[in-house]
Design goal:
Elements: H1 6-34, H2 39-51, H3 64-81, H4 90-109, H5 114-124, H6 133-152, H7 158-181, H8 189-193, H9 197-206, H10 214-224, H11 228-240, H12 249-270, H13 275-290, H14 302-316, E1 333-343, E2 348-351, H15 360-364, H16 387-396, H17 400-410, H18 417-435, E3 472-485, E4 490-503
Antiparallel strand pairs: 1-2, 1-3, 3-4
């Protein structure tokens, strides 16, 4: 098949520009405007975008229709099976989940219903979180394409849809590569100097894979430290491959599969599971392989790659959408708040982030620093943004006095009395209601395995996990510091003291 004429590429570029404008100035503001509104307001606001296109010839997305249906089903599953917030009335939450299910089914057959669906998912069900952002932006881009093509009465450009969807996906990897390139004085500073194996040590201290013996983890870390530079280079290459992926369809498919495998490796090393991204990128790769050549020729080749490069640069500059900056220096030192419970029978158990759904992400990250007056050096999993500080932590080699001085010099106290009161009130209300038989999730306990997985897998610790099998009479909140000592390979606990106790029964 010959190369399409330049005029056809120009038509694709104009279509992509129309979709980007619709996304940036119509769809995104509309979703932000209706999110967290009442269900009635969301439904009323979603009527015009759903009704008006019915009087216009709908664009034909081809096989991409099935990909979009898969993404809708995936996120609807996550939203409808997430736990209730038992501190709030159950009726409205149950209604929101039922409404999400109904709107998701409608959106599979009539895409304009996606606006109301996103209003419920992003706002009412708190779905606008880091791990779901990329799939949600794919749906927003698809809705923007559908509406732009319908209202402009333009000839359907399925190739433009391929370009937009691919750019949305790859932008969530290109921007982290750009962030890493800016960390040091040279673009390759992070790849050459970051000690990525410390991420594994910090994740183990945080609560990932604690079923492994410390000796096993130490042995793995000793072998892994020699792979830091090759792994770092491969990471940046995988994240940046989207810049050239549209040169060829096979390269695009390989790039999507590579990003999915990259997310699998991240999950194994750190306990951060982007299962939504993995599933969606694999599905998108399969879809790209099924597209007929005739209708999608202008989605690939050097003109398409140049157009994609412009889109990726604009998104990395936060001018279209705003992927997260994911670039930092890994350190072997972590300070974390832990929650424990004492049951009515006197058993001491760990309260881990999976039980705290729908706030499993918050309880898996840095929540609780506002409870302590200890200065904190780092963010999630011991990450820092200053290489000098990272080097000072390494030089401390787990010495408590040296680390104390570093915390006093570079740390920040995040104590907040108001947040602490609200947090204690939340835990008190939640467990009092659970103790009195409140239902925590929409899925029966016998079918809990059908619940969508979480994204922060810190579900292990020094104590067995609490699963709600018996009432809780006391909650203990502790501050703990752990460090991996590079010189000896030891994983040591430096500090462990009680921050607050809540008596319930």
């Amino acid at each position: 098949m010959g190369t399409p004429p330049l005029a056809v590429y120009l038509h694709t570029a104009m279509t992509v520009a129309a979709v980007a404008v619709c996304y940036r100035f119509v769809i995104s503001p509309a979703v932000r405007g209706i999110a967290r509104r009442s269900a009635a307001v969301i439904l009323v606001a979603g009527v015009p975008p759903a009704v008006l296109p019915a009087f216009l010839p709908p664009p034909e997305p081809g096989p991409i229709r099935w990909f979009v249906m898969f993404v809708i089903a995936l996120l609807t599953w996550q939203g409808t099976t997430s736990d209730y917030d038992v501190t709030e009335p159950m009726g409205p939450q149950r209604l929101d989940k039922q409404l999400l299910l109904a709107l998701g089914a409608a959106a599979c057959f009539w895409p304009p219903a996606l606006l109301a669906w996103m209003g419920v998912y992003c706002g009412r069900l708190r779905g606008w979180k880091h791990h779901a952002m990329m799939p949600l932006r794919l749906l927003k881009a698809y809705l923007a394409w559908f509406l732009a093509m319908a209202f402009l009465e333009a000839s359907s450009s399925a190739a433009a849809l391929v370009l937009v969807l691919g750019c949305v996906s790859f932008s969530h990897y290109v921007k982290p590569a750009w962030s890493k390139a800016r960390l040091g004085p040279r673009p390759w500073s992070w790849a050459w100097h970051n000690r990525t194996h410390y991420l594994m040590a910090s994740a183990y201290a945080w609560g990932w894979a604690r079923f492994l013996r410390p000796e096993t983890v130490s042995r793995v870390l000793r072998h892994a430290r020699g792979l830091d530079r090759p792994v770092n280079v491969l990471t940046m290459m995988t994240e940046a491959v989207g810049l050239v992926a549209f040169l060829d369809r096979r390269l695009l498919i390989a790039a999507l599969v590579a990003t999915a495998l990259f997310n699998v490796a991240v999950a194994l090393a750190s306990g951060i599971l982007f299962w939504e991204n993995i599933s969606v990128n694999v599905a998108l790769a399969i879809t790209m392989g099924l597209l007929p050549d005739a209708a999608y020729g202008t989605a690939f080749g050097w003109p398409a790659a140049l157009l994609a490069l412009v889109m990726l640069i604009l998104s990395a500059s936060d001018l279209l959408w705003q992927p997260w900056h994911l670039g930092w220096w890994d350190s072997p030192f972590t300070a974390r708040i832990h929650w424990q419970v004492e049951t009515a029978s006197g058993r001491r158990m760990g309260l881990y982030n999976d039980f705290m759904c729908p706030y499993e992400r918050e309880f898996g990250r840095i929540l609780g620093y506002f409870l302590t007056s200890e200065p904190v050096l780092h963010d999630h999993l011991g990450i820092v943004w200053d290489r000098k500080l990272r080097d000072l932590i390494l030089q401390a080699d787990g010495d408590p006095e040296t680390l104390r001085r570093l915390r006093e010099t570079y740390g920040r106290v995040r104590k907040d009395e108001q947040q602490a009161k609200e947090h204690i009130a939340f835990l008190t209300t939640m467990f009092n209601r659970l103790n009195h038989g409140a239902r925590k999730g929409p899925v029966p306990r016998s079918l809990r395995r059908l619940k969508a997985p979480g994204g922060q897998l810190y579900q292990w610790g020094d104590l067995p996990p609490y699963r709600g099998d018996e009432p809780v009479r006391r909650i203990t909140i502790r501050y703990e510091e752990r460090c991996y000592r590079p010189s000896t390979g030891d994983l040591v606990r430096l500090t462990d003291h009680v921050v607050h106790e809540i008596d319930l029964l």
